[in-house]
Amino acid sequence: MIESVAVVHDMVSRMEPVDGLEAEHRALVLGWLTGTDDVFRRVPPAEPPQHLVSYVVPVAADGRVLLVDHVKAGLWLPPGGHVEPGENPVLTARRELAEELGLDGATLRETPVLLTVTGTVGTVQRHTDVSLWFVLPCTGDEDLNPDAGEFHAVRWWSRAELAAGPSRLDPHFFRFLAALQRLSPGPRLRGGPAVADRREDLVEPRQDLG
């Protein structure tokens, strides 16, 4: 096992599953990491057909979470992206925050709170993402600079807003929220009005100039 894969194996082995599904995913992923070093995406979009992803969820002090309306996936997802060959997933999370939102990842919690194995949807070639979910504690007032090439929109969501539109979220997102509630001390999601009443939380993506 090469060093970069061993780092991920150690990270996953130290995670405490939030439920039975995560325990199943954890066992599958540990076996996968033990059996191959070909775990990083080498050629977009799907080579190898199963590869590592880092999600990072900004969580405001009042419990709201930041999601992006992803162009290719057609879903509201956390910021994040594929782990580059040899890259530590923590560094992936920080890099994606800077590239996608212009956010500093200095306060990132370096232990992921959830592990998921998911077949992709949307406009890209189907493949399987093995995703490590990280948390970025925020104030909720950060100056964001979202990438219009990646996202239709970016916005903060309350628990009530998330519950009102579950079909457009990652299928594991509510499991992430359950894992988030285990953090002690940690952020707690509050309720809120419907999405249509919270337009001030929407941040327009920047235009791609390159």
UniProtKB/TrEMBL annotation:
Residue ranges of domain Nudix hydrolase in the record: 49-184
What cofactor is needed? Mg(2+)
User: Compositional bias of type Basic and acidic residues: which residue ranges?
Assistant: 196-210
Q: Which residues form a coiled coil?
A: none
Record's keyword terms, sorted: Hydrolase
InterPro entries (alphabetical): NUDIX_hydrolase-like_dom_sf, NUDIX_hydrolase_CS, NUDIX_hydrolase_dom
Task: Write down the Pfam families for this protein, in alphabetical order.
Answer: NUDIX
Query: Does this entry carry the keyword Hydrolase?
Result: yes
Record GO terms (molecular function): hydrolase activity
Q: Where is this region: Disordered?
A: 188-210
Task: Work out whether the entry's keyword set contains Kinase.
Answer: no
What name does the UniProt record give this protein? ADP-ribose pyrophosphatase YjhB, NUDIX family
Source species of the chain: Actinoplanes regularis
